[in-house]
Design a protein that fits this description.
Elements (H helix, E strand, L loop, with lengths): L4 H9 L4 E8 L13 E7 L3 H15 L8 H5 L4 H8 L9 E7 H13 L4 H15 L1 H15 L10 H13 L7 H9 L2 H13 L10 H12 L6 E6 L6 H10 L4 E5 L5 H21 L5 H7 L12 H7 L12
Parallel strand pairs: 1-4, 4-5
Antiparallel strand pairs: 1-2, 2-3
Amino acid sequence: MTWSRTDLTGAVAGGRTLEVVCDESGSDGENLTTGNTDVFAHASVHLSVESASGHMREIRSRIRSPAEEYKANHLLREKHRSVLVWFLGTAGPIHGTAHVHLTEKPFFVVDRVMALLTDEDPAAALALHRQGRTLFGAEPWREFLESSNEVLRTRRNEETDSPVDAFFRTVDALRGAPAVEPVAGILDLLARARPRADAHRARIDDSPELFPVLDPLIPAIGHTAAYWRRSGLPVTLVHDRQNMLTDERIARIEQEARLAGLRLVAARSDPRVLLADFLAGAARKIASDELGGRGDAELTTLLRPYVGASSIWGDERSWAALSPHTCHSGNRSP
């Protein structure tokens, strides 16, 4: 991250906060297994409105689209690849002043179900995630992920049977297949976790406004706040409007993420949000391609400096390409 000593000194002297502007890409709410994307990206930028306006004029001049509002998909079109390369590169508008937190959705589901139903450390979720599909096959593993999603999510499909019953049926089915340690032991722990699963569903029934444990936006905001707090300044986040960010939830996020403030704006009203949208959309697509074995080496290399080391990612091969560091052991969300 590049900081201006003059700007930081003035901010401290003037009692100002560091204002960071955010947007996301790949949101399916709490539906992480049957949605449209396998990656969630939360991007943030720190620059002035004036600078962002100038950068947007430059992007428009390079893309030359008649669209009234530019979105990330403009940059992702193959005919505009040179603009995307420039945007992410060292000569681009956000180099040294932007960050993106990535979430691999399937791993997030496994991590959350392990955290809620067991007392195991994050290494157990990582082991189960990395070995599950290979050990059990694509279809049984898909059923496990979907049932895990349903048992945790705040809202559920009322047309289906009990999400708790369905989850433990899938766990029993996996336990009936040959497995090696530590996966066999992890499944045994999950099989004994019925009381915790029932208690979680009871909390949801009693508290409709319960914080959703499966929406990756909430931990992403926390990781984003932690990243920018490294400046030593109080951090205020300006975020594109999100339906799940109610006043009550914003108040809780501000407290837990140690934010000086969190306010919502319409994307069209702030060019900085548009730049964050470009980065989030590009990061989601590049990371998803890498996860799926379709990675573009040039674009992955350009994205890497922006990727947060605390990203919630379990796939070993793709993280080796995306990580800003050389090693990674899996990250659990707060």
